[in-house]
Write a structure and sequence with these properties.
Blueprint lengths: L1 H11 L5 H12 L14 E4 L12 E4 L1 H7 L3 H20 L12 E3 H7 L7 H12 L6 E3 L9 E4 L12 H7 L18 H20 L3 H24 L5 H18 L3 H4 L1
Antiparallel strand pairs: 1-2, 3-5, 4-5
Helix pairs in contact: 1-3, 4-6, 8-9, 9-10
């Protein structure tokens, strides 16, 4: 899933919309787009943010630095991103506002980055378009100036860039950046009613008293306690992923099946 988002950036130099990504995930992986909501919050950025577990078709789905690195793509994009952030931090450090304009901030453009770092023209347009897309996602202290899109972006630099002066690598950047991104994805909605959460605990309490009354053994009682939550979790992951061939669904399903067998086998002689 993360790889598919990274592929959009790598091949199309842009982030996909939710509708585009949903189509690819369903066509190629038999997954529903809503599975995005189960990803960690520091990997995917969705704008506008989901509401009540719903994502608008035109929402932009982007990877953060963490997500792009996890996808195995965009190594040069990440290197250039870090170069831009360092230059922005240096610019903010030395910038002097004009008299009467103390609230203004410095502006860093793609052309200035290319000139200062002597970036050649070969492949620069695609590279800077991708870097601009990543800069617009990350909370590094800059804000995209409206209208400056594609390879000719410009960012207004704020005080938030100061921690990144001379940042040596991506690992250090990730330690210094704010914990959440501006368009942070919403937590995955639980497709089960709230009262289902208490059901395993209720079954566990019942299983303590019923064995003595029905002459259940320890195996049957333990199997019942395990059967209910594993069945619920298998169904829950089926609802989230939209398919049965998911590792979570299979593992919980196998545990539920094993629990059911352990629960029923001791009763077979009495039934027969």
């Amino acid at each position: 899933m993360v790889d598919e988002i990274g592929r959009f950036l790598e091949e199309d130099c842009r982030w996909p919309t939710f509708a585009e990504l949903d189509r690819v995930l369903y066509r190629d992986h038999d997954l529903q787009g809503e599975v995005l909501l189960s990803l960690p919050k520091d990997i995917v950025d969705i704008v506008p943010a989901p509401e009540n577990g719903l994502v608008t078709p035109e929402a932009r789905v982007a990877l953060t630095v963490t997500g792009l690195r996890a996808s195995g793509r965009g190594r040069r994009v990440l290197t250039t991103f870090l170069m831009v952030v360092r230059q922005a931090a240096d610019l903010e450090h030395t910038w002097e506002p004009q008299p009467g304009h103390a609230d203004d901030g410095p502006v860093l453009s793609a052309a200035e980055v290319a000139r200062f770092n002597q970036v050649g023209r070969n492949g620069r347009e695609d590279l800077f378009t991708k870097v601009g897309a990543l800069l617009d996602v990350e909370p590094w202290g800059g804000c995209l100036i409206p209208g400056s899109t594609g390879p000719d972006w410009s960012f207004k630099i704020g005080r938030g860039v100061r921690p990144f002066r001379a940042v040596p690598d991506i690992d250090t950047y990730l330690k210094l950046r704010p914990a959440t991104a501006p368009g942070e994805a919403a937590a995955a909605p639980d497709p089960l009613p709230p009262w289902w959460v208490a059901l395993p605990a209720v079954c566990a309490l019942v299983a303590i008293f019923i064995p003595a009354y029905l002459n259940w053994g320890l195996l049957q009682a333990s199997a019942l306690v395990l059967l209910i939550p594993t069945s619920i979790q298998s169904w829950r992951w089926r609802r989230i992923c939209g398919r049965w061939r998911d590792l979570h669904v299979i593992l919980y399903g196998l545990l539920a099946l094993l629990s059911a067998v352990c629960f029923l086998v001791p009763s077979l002689p009495k039934i027969i």
